Amino acid sequence: MTKIITHSGVAHLDDFLSVCLILYKDNSVDTILREAEVSEEELKEKTTWKVDISESYDPDIKAFDHHQYSVFSWISTIFNVTPPGKFGSENCNFQK
What we know:
This protein is α/β, with parallel strands linked by helices. It is 30% helix and 22% strand. A five-stranded mixed beta sheet has the order 2-1-3-5-4.
């Protein structure tokens, strides 16, 4: 069984597009779950696609989340901004 897990709550365009691309690429997917909480087992499972959850990017375990801190750290270095808070840019302080 191959599944895709994404966050629950309001669906966003990035989640929708990610799921569509995975379904196009991987015809073995038979389950799509939208969960508020994901277990450590599910996060480490190599046959489960994790989309927009886990705050990690690791292709070896099919974890694809653009919210990982390393992305914000890289952006902050280039654009001289403070990385945002955990769930968005409300804490982003632009410096001159």
